[in-house]
Specification:
296 residues, eight-stranded mixed beta sheet, globular, Rossmann fold, 9 helices
């Protein structure tokens, strides 16, 4: 198969997004979790970065900030489902969230989204007083593609000898962009092979897909030492399940504290799409954060 041009990729990505319908989010669902929300513009390595800051009224933990990274195969921006998820966590943990709407492929292929994620992380640490955030109470959390970016941002922080977040949460992340999706063990209801191939190609040129910042499973051990306590959530019917769990085991073997939880009957994106297992997973995330940092 001949590699499509960037223009062809853009057209194909737009067609793919149209076919991938999102669950409806109603005004009533949003109203159940009222928050103060602001759209922020954050300076980055490759231009301004869009992010959405949210907080509930009368916060009990105003010094806690969660840096959230949405999913979508690296090709879809932030959606109402992402916002609703963040609102629920806002209320469950009574803290602040900064939800990054990073630049998407194939308009901006690898490593643009990773650069933006790291730029926001570095910006937060440079502005903790202004944000009224305890630098020891920053959590980085990502879902699917965002889970990949969260891990990559921690790896880069370690490489640059910079402070890392207090906790890492990565849900059903794609961590091996290089291996052909058809070669991965089918787990039941994974992303269709052809669509997964397109996602990988849209995000990164084939010759760069083994870059550890693109596919963290190929990172040498020295890049994985010093991770913060990490929670890796996987879905048992997701073809990405095994690579995420294998990576979690490598983190543990490199001396890191790692919690891994597989939801056997869950499918990819189950927490954001509010599918079977999502409530238990959200409870797990909240318990992990409460136990990892001092909260009220």
């Amino acid at each position: 198969m001949q590699t499509p041009t960037r223009e062809e990729m853009i057209r194909m990505a737009e067609e793919t997004k149209k076919k991938n319908k999102q669950p409806e989010v109603t005004e009533e669902m949003m109203a159940e979790f009222p928050v103060k929300m602001e759209e922020w513009t954050i300076p980055g390595e490759e231009g301004d970065i869009k992010a959405y800051y949210s907080e509930p009224e009368q916060m009990k933990n105003p010094d806690v900030l969660i840096l959230n990274l949405h999913g979508g195969g690296f090709i879809r921006g932030r959606t109402e489902n992402d916002e609703l998820f963040c609102r629920r966590i806002n209320h469950a943990l009574s803290c602040k969230i900064l939800d990054v709407d990073y630049k998407i492929a194939p308009y901006y292929p690898f490593p643009a989204a990773l650069h933006e994620t790291f730029s926001v992380l570095r910006w937060i640490y440079a502005n903790t007083r202004k944000l009224n955030v305890d630098p020891e109470k920053l959590v980085i959390m990502g879902h699917s593609a965002g889970g990949n970016l969260a891990i990559g941002a921690v790896m880069r922080a370690l490489e640059e000898d910079m402070r890392t977040p207090a906790l890492l949460i990565s849900e059903y992340p794609p961590l091996d962009i290089y291996t052909d999706p058809e070669a991965k063990k089918p787990m039941g209801k994974g992303i269709p092979v052809e669509r997964a191939r397109l996602y990988n190609l849209f995000y990164c040129d084939r010759e760069r897909q083994k870059d550890p910042y693109c596919s963290p499973v190929y990172a040498p051990d020295e890049m994985l030492r010093g991770f913060p306590p990490s929670l890796i959530v996987t879905a048992g019917s997701d073809d990405l399940c095994n690579e995420a769990e294998d990576f979690a085991l490598r983190l543990a073997r490199c001396g890191n504290e790692v919690t891994v939880k597989r939801f056997p009957d869950a499918i990819h994106a189950f927490t954001i799409k509010r599918l079977a297992g999502h409530e238990e997973a959200c409870d797990l995330i909240c318990r992990f954060v409460r136990s990892g940092i001092k909260m009220k």
